[in-house]
Amino acid sequence: MVEESAYWLAWSQILGIGPVLLRRLQQHFGTLETAWNATKIQLGEVEGFGFQTLEKIVQQRSRLHPEQLFTKHQQENPNFWTPADTDYPRLLLETPSPPPILYYRGEVELQENLGQKPLVGIVGTRRPSEYGIRWTRQISTALAKNGFTVVSGMAEGIDTESHAAAMKAGGRTIAVLGTGVDIIYPHKNRDLYKQILTAGLVVSEYPTKTPPDRTHFPRRNRIIAGMSRAILVMEAPLKSGALITATYANEFGRDVYVLPGRVDDYPSQGCLKLLTQGASLILKELDELLTMLGAIPQIDRVEQLSTTQQLMPTLSPELQRVMDAIAFDVLPFDLIVQQTNMPASSVSSALLQLELMGLLSQLPGMRYQKN
After folding, report:
1. What residues does 200 pair with on adjacent strands?
2. Can you say how many angstroms the Cα of residue 122 is from the centroid of all Cα atoms in its chain?
3. pTM (2 decimals)?
4. Which CATH code of 2.60.120.10, 3.30.9.10, 3.40.50.2000, 1.10.10.10 fits the domain covering 301-370?
5. Which of 181 and 357 is assigned the larger pLDDT?
6. What mean pLDDT comes out for the span 179-184?
């Protein structure tokens, strides 16, 4: 039996099929395996699939064998997740364009992927002022000491300072690259890269041996925003890539915070622009920022789950399967279908029954969580 992950990989190899169209395919057919076996007419029912796209799919699909492709790919790229895998970062999965393949190197911490440990992105200019460096170090240190994982892009400047400060404080950090996870860019960060592998993760949507490309870095910014609960912009000129990350953060419903600067400071012009668009200020009292980001301890959700399980009535195998698929955090409908390997109609019926029993709640966007 070919795993669903193999179909995510196979579809990602077809030119013209990006993350957004892949998400539409999955939502329309329930699984990408079903979509792979769909006819040209059936594929044409999916929004965004025009005549030329359909022709490309038919031609390329006939030359690909998902199971063989998956086996070969694993040999060259042993560590990667697809949206079909339960370890795929949960927050990133809920965005409109999650990478079909997310490669990684380093130390995996499942609490981060499941959304049980908060991730905060820190971005900014490659040429920060002493003021920007000082505050980046101070904030990254505070976040690390309060249990946050710092996410950034391992670029020069603000990115480098945030990674280094988080690790120096004994915390974890995640670097999202615009190259393969085995390529160090910029090369001067080779020591930083090695440190990150022992105190966090390096991730990328590009396979091994992929060199730097100017088009890759703006795209990787959506991953930084998608993985993070909030984005902090430390210093950013008006044409900074950090503003792209902030734009993605706004689209994904993430909070955006900016370090204020003087109106005539070049590195602060982008931050001032973000303030006019509704971003929040990072103030001197970091306790307030930490509180806003969720640093105050919350009720132990594991303990809550144990209590719920003790009171839970005996369920049919089908209902229990759906309940088991929903972990501690919110889970979207399509991922429940994948994890249960049940027909979408059966999952929908089971969810309705469980909701009527008071065992789970439906949230906007067809997402579900246990009560």
Report:
1. 173
2. 15
3. 0.78
4. 1.10.10.10
5. 181
6. 97
